[in-house]
Amino acid sequence: MEQPIGKTRWAIAEGYIPSWSNGPDPEMTSHETACLLNAGDRDAQVRITVYFADREPAGPYRVTVAARRTLHVRFNELKDPEPIPLDTDYASVIESDVPIVVQHTRLDSRQAELALLSTMAFPAG
C-alpha cells in the first residue's frame, strides 16, 4: 500500500470575493477556489471553517472528495450554513478525515485584464 499524500489540516490565510465581475458568468465570475486532491483509497469528509476580522466564524461547510479524485470548491458557491459575504476579507481552515492536498486559486475579473493567482495552502497537520 502506498503512503498517502497530503495532510488533514490546511489553512488559507487570505480570501476575498469581489461583489462584481467583468465577463460572462459563470466562467469569468470573480471567485476564490479551494482545489482539493484526494489521492487516497477512501473518500475524504472535508469541513471548511471561514474566519473573519469582525465576527464569529462561519461553518463548517461540508464537502466530500471521492477517493482518487479532485474537487474544486468555489467559496462563492458555499451556501450552507450561510453564504460567504462578498467584499469581505476572510481566511479559512480546511480539515479532512484523511490526508488531502489543498491549493488556493483566485480569479479577480473586476478589470478586463483579469488576474489569476494560485498558491499552496499552509499544511497545518
UniProtKB/TrEMBL annotation:
InterPro entries for this protein: ASRT (IPR009794), TM1070-like_sf (IPR036698)
Pfam families according to UniProt: ASRT (PF07100)
Domain of life per record: Bacteria
Protein name per its UniProtKB record: Sensory rhodopsin transducer
Organism whose genome encodes this protein: Sulfurifustis variabilis
